[in-house]
Design a protein that fits this description.
This protein is of the alpha/beta class. The protein has helices at residues 32-53, 66-73, 75-98, 104-127, 133-141, 162-180, 198-205, 239-246, 290-319, 341-354, 362-367, 389-392, 397-415, 424-436, 439-446, 451-469, 485-490, and strands spanning 7-15, 60-64, 145-149, 186-187, 209-213, 225-226, 233-237, 323-330, 358-360. It folds into two domains: 7-150 and 188-367, Glycoside hydrolase 38, N terminal domain (7-stranded beta/alpha barrel), CATH 3.20.110.10; 390-490, Families 57/38 glycoside transferase, middle domain (immunoglobulin/albumin-binding domain-like). The chain has 17 helices and nine strands.
Amino acid sequence: MTGQKLGTFCMVLHSHLPWLAGHGTWPVGEEWLYQAWAHSYLPLVRMLERFAAEGREDVLTLGVTPVLAAQLDDPYSLRGAHDWLGNWSVRAQYAANRWRSADPLLREVAAAEYRDAEHALEDFETRWRHGFSPLLRRLVDARAVELLGGPVTHPFQPLLDPRLREFALRSGLADTTLRLGSTPEGIWAPECGYSPGMEAGYAAAGVRRFLVDGPALHGDTAAARPVGDSDVLCFGRDLEVAYRVWSPKSGYPGDPAYRDFHTFDHPSGLKPSRVTGKTVPPGEKKPYEPQRAARAVDKHVADFVDLVRSRLTELRERHGKPSLVVAAYDTELYGHWWHEGPAWLEGVLRALPEAGIEVTTLRGAAESGHVGAPVELPASSWGSGKDWRVWEGGKVADIVEANEKLQHVLLSAVDDQSGEFRDPRLDRLASEAMLALASDWAFMVSKDSAVDYAQRRAAVHTERCYALAAGADPHTDTVFGHLDARELARTGG
């Protein structure tokens, strides 16, 4: 293979968290947003800015769900995140005092947490005052990243009425354009949910490429594929490569050296333990050791590069030409769920080119000619079974029924509207409905993860919708103040 192009690798990250209100702080309330902000989004932006400063283009493809972008730009959330970062620093100081006579490794954990918190505070106070969008826009304009958009919240699109599906997608793309000054040509469809024919709606909205999970292509993910008779390309996630990182049973984050996500020191809220062993009880886990974890990162960077190189070699031999590998993950894996993830990610993105492997974006891969023959896609997702069971299975039958009724209520309210002027009540109704229809609630119930929270959030948004449909005055606070229900009246299905 010497002197021959081996193939191309694309890293795709999808940034998404459910819309949260009244997030709360440790030890009560929902910390998800602020933890991910501190441990995923801040490090990711710093890493991408380093690459941009070096003149690197097409480093990775980044999907940002509009509802998350709204949170990361929102003044309320910015104040809350700043408070959380300050509290993180205080908690680290408290832990250092508690562990003064404890294992020296615990004292180093507290010191490292304090340094990280102070660094994050300085970063946030000096560069994030106006939110995420100004930072992201510079990275997009510099072509360091390719941005993927998507529907305005995070609905499972196959279960939406076609009119709502169109409205959600067009509103999401418009929101991204408003924040960043350009419209994405690609999307990460929520949950990679697909129903035959959706490519026509994508084409009409200006979407030229989207992601599906590998099994939807029967594992043939070595090139992008036009869907049906459209010119919309689908890219398939390579599960053989992706699962080396995030396998339910044997992925990198489960290494004994890495920080254990689930084991807390409850008085401080810190996570001072390493995984130690999968069957080791929390109280018996050993203290975290940064140097041991750093050695594991180096090992796993090398292992991943070897895996990608081997996979591309196999695909080149099979197809007789350089091929494509797409690895796609939730952004929150890097830092939030997997503490060492950002270090691993930067290591991989630097080591792959050194190993002779081209690293680019989905856009770059298409421009380089990694496009195969047209394909007919089946109904699919990236959930359990690669079908729709997570979002319409028996565990969530009540949510599915409630969502169907809610869609009817929303569409009826919009169709009954007369006149050309905006109605704030209907705008708020559309906004609340899109939040109620988010895929997250069914996902959490099906996966037995924060079930009470998910059911409560779905119910709260749905109840607000019925109140608004009955004529209640709209509240002034809404996540998408520019959402115009008249656009829903104009959709044709």
